[in-house]
């Protein structure tokens, strides 16, 4: 059992790793081996068959598994740092519930392509919760937002982010989203009247980041609360509660009494875990002062992470927000294990957690690196009217007349194939 499962998983993981991440294979394999050791200890729940799919899946293939009515699935779509790398995007986790609800917690740079690889129609992914406006926690919100029409989102985007609490209004989420909309004025303006731009509508909710255990979302049996974090100002952590399950999520934070009080015994605690000072110097070329400051006064180093987990005893802990490689993970693991001996996953992108009252199951997702947008769930509607954008005549004057015949031929072929009667015209 162990040998068979090990061989098959290592092969699949290596194939995916080779296609996506190259050098990541080694790390991936180490974790898969550990997971297999756990899986091997668990008896199969169904009969094996030569013709039917295996009853127990050792990896997660997105879109192929039903969630139980009281089950939660969390998928890491960004576990790394602001420094860009192929293997890890910056902070982002997708949460799927058995009632059909889906949420995105943080959306750091590089994360949208990971989300997209899961193949979830974007109409189901309209709720994004941001812990704080650092780019490694919200930079891909712009990509997600502005590519909405092309990626078949036919509903407005809803964003929850910090504001109030004595912070300057211009640092709050409403100001940030207002500027984001304005930054892309050319793009949305030139698309007006030619595609369905419903996806460009934004519904922004600023929550007071300074309030403790503050309900910022409540619908369909799901409650999301915010806690203040210690990370400059205007930073929060979240607790999602549904069907008796509790998930705690920190964007960035030093250990803080609010987290320690309110996340006791949660089912899944996802918390930042930075490098040690020495690692910050050797890997990031930080000066000694910069390194110490960053990992002891702004972020949680592995020892802080471990002590927080020892004090809160989650059923399952997840350490993220560091470059998780063959040479970094052992150092972080060693620092944590000196203080905390509970279950910890050292997160990588596409790690998946299935959370039920019975416990937490960790696997890696095998995703499609050649994803296309999932089809729209609603009929696309282009708004008619006087706002339709028209390219200026001075620009169209550059069109070579010799291309008219070629364009008309394309139209003729298309009309014949599809039974339509479109006419080629550059000017609308
Ligand atoms: Zn931050
Ligand atoms: Zn961060």
Topology:
Blueprint (H helix, E strand, L loop, with lengths): L1 H19 L4 H17 L30 E7 L13 E6 L4 E6 L3 H7 L9 E3 L5 H4 L1 H7 L10 E7 L9 H11 L1 H7 L10 E7 L5 E6 L2 E7 L7 E7 L2 E6 L6 H6 L5 E5 L4 H8 L3 H11 L3 H11 L4 E4 L8 H9 L6 E3 L4 E6 L2 E6 L28 H4 L6 H16 L10
Parallel strand pairs: 3-4, 4-5, 5-6, 10-11, 11-12, 12-13
Antiparallel strand pairs: 1-2, 1-14, 2-3, 7-8, 8-9, 9-10, 14-15
Helix pairs in contact: 1-2, 9-10, 11-12
This protein binds zinc ion (2 copies).
One zinc ion (ZN) binds next to loops.
Terminal CA distance: 65 Å
Strand count, sense and barrel status of the largest sheet are: 8 strands, mixed
Number of continuous helical runs: 14
Coarse shape: globular
* Unique bound compounds: zinc ion
The gist of it:
This protein is 32% helix and 20% strand. The chain is built from 14 helices and 15 strands. Bound molecules: zinc ion (2 copies).
Characterize the structure shown.
The chain has 428 residues and is α/β, with parallel strands linked by helices. Helices cover 32% and strands 20% of the residues. The strands form 2 sheets. Strands 6-5-4-3-2-1-14-15 form an 8-stranded mixed sheet. The protein is globular. Mean pLDDT is 90; it is low at 1-30. One zinc ion binds at residues 132, 134, 231, 252.
Q: Any key phrases for this structure?
A:
binds zinc ion; alpha/beta; 428 residues; disordered N terminus; 7-stranded mixed sheet
